[in-house]
From TrEMBL:
Keywords: Membrane, Transmembrane, Transmembrane helix. This is PAP2 superfamily protein. It comes from Alkalitalea saponilacus. It comes from the Bacteria. The chain crosses the membrane at residues 6-26, 42-65, 80-97, 104-127, 133-150, 157-175, 181-199. The keyword RNA-binding does not apply.
Length: 200
């Protein structure tokens, strides 16, 4: 069970959530779904680079300078520097996308993802909120907001996302990474911030 929980934690890692969110936006059937495949590839690459590759590449350096004790970052304080620098990379990705002239929907999604991350930085100073649940909660909120804003039937995706959220929450609790309060708070924070911003 512990191995399965670790696999789930990797599959639904918060650094993968922005890329998954972009994929679901492209699949939703809005105007951005009709962008050329070349344009989509560039967006995918920019988002994945700025929200996953660059933040991950910094971890060995933080470990070398003893700013984190391990790559698991088990305490709230240990997560402060990685999350802060991840926020800088997120902003870089957002700025690049804006410079490319991407549709407002995609730019707004990246901006609100950055906002959720910055809120997490502030909370992390005092409390170890679940970043996994902020991530998947944000994607769930984005899909629900898209469905309401554009009148789309995304019930299938929402069922899958709520199922994935429950599995991820269970995995984080089983690993002892968080308390139930930290898991619930993470999901609600991610969901509410992204849902409210995308719906507007």
């Amino acid at each position: 069970m512990k191995l399965a929980s670790k696999i789930v934690s990797i599959l639904f890692h918060p650094m993968l959530m922005p890329t998954i969110g972009i994929y679901l936006i492209f699949q939703a059937g809005t105007h951005v779904s009709y962008m050329s495949m070349d344009a989509k590839r560039i967006i995918y690459f920019t988002v994945f680079l700025s929200t996953a590759i660059l933040p991950l590449s910094l971890l060995p350096l933080l470990y070398q300078f003893k700013l984190i004790k391990s790559f698991n970052m088990e305490t709230a304080r240990e997560r402060l520097f990685p999350v802060f620098f991840a926020g800088l990379f997120y902003y870089l990705g957002y700025a690049l996308l804006k410079k490319m002239g991407v549709p407002v929907l995609i730019g707004n999604f990246m901006l609100v993802t950055l906002l959720a991350l910055l809120l997490a930085v502030g909370i992390t100073i005092f409390w170890k909120i679940s970043m996994h649940m902020i991530g998947i909660g944000g994607v769930t909120g984005a899909v629900m907001a898209l469905a309401l804003r554009y009148g789309l039937d995304m019930s299938g995706w929402m069922v899958l996302l709520f199922l994935a959220s429950g599995i991820t929450a269970t995995a984080r609790l089983h690993l002892g990474a968080h308390t139930p309060a930290q898991v619930y708070a993470g999901f609600l924070l991610g969901w509410s911030v992204v849902f409210g911003s995308v719906l507007m």
